[in-house]
Amino acid sequence: MLPGAGDRCGRAAAAVLGAAAAALMLAARPLAARDLPGTEIRDLHYGEVLFHFYQQDDFTALTHLLAARHAGRLSHHDHESELLLGGLYLAYGQHRQAGEIFSRLLDESADPAVRDRAWFYLGKVRYQRGRYASAEAALRRVGGALPERLAAEHRLLLAQCLMQQARYAEAAALLGDWHGPADWTAYARLNLGVAFVRDGDLAAGAEQLERVGQLQSRNAELRDLRDKANLALGYAYLQAQQPAAARAALSRVRVNGPFSNKALLGAGWADALNADYRQALVPWLALRDRDLLDSAVQESLLAIPYAFGRLEAHGSAADHYLSAIAAFDAEIARLDAAVERARQGALVPALLRQDDPEIGRWYWQLAELPSSEDSRYLYHLIANHEFQDGLRNVRDLLALGGYLRDWAQRLDAFADILDTREQAYRERLPRVAGELGSVDLGALRARRNALAARLAEIATGQDPAALATAEELDQWQRLEAVAQTPAWSTPAAAAARDRQRLLKGLLQWRLEREFRYRLYRERRALAGLDEVLAAAERSAAALNSARQSVPQEIAAYRERLLRLAPRLERLQGRVLAALDGEQQSLQRLAIAELDAQRSRLATYRVQARFALATIYDRANAAAANREPLP
Questions:
Q1: What is the 3-state secondary structure (H, E, C) of 152-197?
Q2: Are 77 and 226 contained in the same domain?
């Protein structure tokens, strides 16, 4: 048997089961933060923040949210806005700030919906930081106020916490009575099946994995999940030394799917366990011509000559070992060159060359590698959470650097705005001051007061004649003048005196009849005068205030601009330093991945050389003893 073949098969089975157990966390998108309940928007600024948030413009949403909270403009959405702030911090990987917010909400809020979300997010923060026991404690504090999709993610996340602590029986019990959205059911069953298998209950695990492994769906994600379930089930059967059942499960994996290589390798080992080495060669030979970077393909290059050896075809076995050694040598040389190129720092910019900056951080991940000679070595890194998170950080830092450059350029525009405002102020001030200076507001106020006093006197004395028109006054004076003539008291003027009394009485009656209306009209005119005079006095006060405040405001803005310029420069330096650190970290991850691939190839090359040497030694010994090869 190939040295270490049985152990390798077992390790492969464990790795496949572990990958299946992580299926949920790799496939489930972070719906939680955007799964906000419908709410009545009572603060306009909060509605604007939500608009940017649902447009996946997370940076703008975060900055506007911070500004609105600082200005006290979210009084009606205090807890909701803080919960959103914590979710955005969590999206940007700011676990400490997010954790502090969720902890504070737990202390302050009595709303079950807010408290449940806070416990959920706090548990998620702890899970992402690898604090599984602490995450479990937080998740168990969640009540029943979560919406359906959040509740489903909560239960699956809690199950993941238990499985990370090797508490598979508890995870299985938690997922056993699953109730949730239909599109989450397959993930729940897959994790339930893996939990059963890890707990040693192969029969129960197989039942769940079979149900997922026989799903009929046109959805690409569910088809991948189906292949993953069949792969996990097949390797579980291999561990249990049940080759027939393993072969049946592995045969359901699509030949051209993302898990086909491991399925073909496992199918060959299932045949080998049945000692059907000729049949085992069929999937292994199919693997031989695939991408050598895949560990299943690499192992097939050793499995093929191993099978030929078991079939007593030692010449073919030696030829395939030689071919494997040559393939390993060539690939190791290419890997060495790729490592050298990675050390030169061109890797990360190449990965983000086709990035779409409109995709929000929360939803973004590197789904496809750019076409380059080194890309084929990095496919395994796409599934690496640390690598994806590092790429998100680089992407965010690049965007932040762009924002800072844009703001630095805006400072010049703001300075121009201040210059324009100051110039307009200096040009308008003399004109406005001259217009107001030409009017003696104090004298006008005194005249108004005199008029008001006279009107009050007329109203108190009930003096209708005081409100008579000029014509009426003229008529009254003429009637009074007639009575002053010398002949007015003679008998001949009796008729004239009667007419004078009649006309005077009519005029008096008319004045008294019009008195109330005329008094009302004068009071209304006085009120209008008050408004005009008050407006003029306000303008004068505003002018006097502006003479002091506008220069002070402009000076304050200039001072802020002067402070902002070096601050932006310092922030740009910090961003560049952080960007360099993240790129160096990603470069180390990539180099470590390349080194791991090289190490694995080197190990396989040693095994191939050892097996080839064994064949040659046995052939030489047989020739020396003139004995046939066994």
A1: HHHHHHHHHHHHHCCCHHHHHHHHHCCCCCHHHHHHHHHHHHHHHH
A2: no
Q: Which residue has the higher pLDDT, 270 or 395?
A: 270
pLDDT tens-digit profile of 402-420?
Answer: 889 998 989 989 989 989 9
pLDDT above 80 (res 24): no
Looking at the structure, tell me whether residues 12 and 54 fall in a common domain: no
Q: Do residues 223 and 246 share a domain?
A: yes
- Confidence grade of residue 354 (pLDDT, cut at 50, 70, 90): low
Residue 593: HSE in the Cβ half-sphere, 13 Å Cα cutoff: 24
Looking at the fold, whether 54 and 117 belong to one and the same domain comes out as yes
Q: What is the pLDDT of residue 570?
A: 94
Q: Is residue 468 part of a domain?
A: no
Mean pLDDT of 23-28: 39
CATH of the domain at 259: 1.25.40
Residue 505 lies in a domain: no
User: Mind giving me the DSSP string for 257-279?
Assistant: STTHHHHHHHHHHHHHHTT-HHH
Residues 14 and 79 occupy one common structural domain:
no
Q: Give 144's DSSP letter.
A: S
Residue that is last in its domain, among 114, 146, 178: 146
Whether 472 shows a pLDDT value over 90: the answer reads no
For the chain, the C-alpha Rg in angstroms (whole number) is: 45
Work out the pLDDT band at 569, boundaries 50, 70, 90: very high
Q: Put residue 242 in one of left, alpha, beta given phi > 0 → left and psi -120 to 50 → alpha.
A: beta
**Nearest C-alpha neighbor of 53 from the set 77, 38, 34:** 34
- Per the structure, how many domains does the chain have? 2
Q: With 0.70 as the threshold, say if the pTM is over it.
A: no
- The reply to whether 361 falls in a domain is no
Q: What is the DSSP string of 309-352?
A: HHTT-HHHHHHHHHHHHHHHHHHHHHHHHHHHHHHTT-HHHHHT
Long-range contacts of 113-120, Cβ-Cβ distance < 8 Å, separation of 24 or more? 113/37, 113/145, 113/146, 114/79, 114/80, 114/83, 115/143, 115/145, 116/142, 116/143, 116/144, 116/145, 116/146, 117/83, 117/146, 117/150, 118/83, 118/86, 120/32, 120/146, 120/150, 120/154
Residue pair 399/357 in contact by the 8 Å Cβ criterion:
yes
Residues 24 and 121 in one domain: no
Residues 237-241, mean pLDDT to the nearest whole number: 93
Tell me the CATH number at 137.
Answer: 1.25.40.10
What sign does the dihedral 43-44-46-47 (CA atoms) show? Answer: positive
Quick one: what percent of the chain has pLDDT higher than 90? 25
Give the domain range for residue 70: 36-146
Handedness of CA 255, 256, 260, 261 (dihedral sign): positive
Are 55 and 102 contained in the same domain?
yes
Same domain, 270 and 180: yes
Hey, is 446 helix, strand or coil?
helix
Distance CA 363, CA 461 (A): 83
Q: What share of the chain is helix, strand, coil (3-state, %, to 5)?
A: 80, 0, 20
Look at residue 261 and tell me if it is in a domain.
yes
Rounded Cα distance between 66 and 7, Å, is 55
Q: To which residue do tokens 């291999």 refer?
A: 238
- Which of residues 245, 274, 303 is at a domain's end? 274
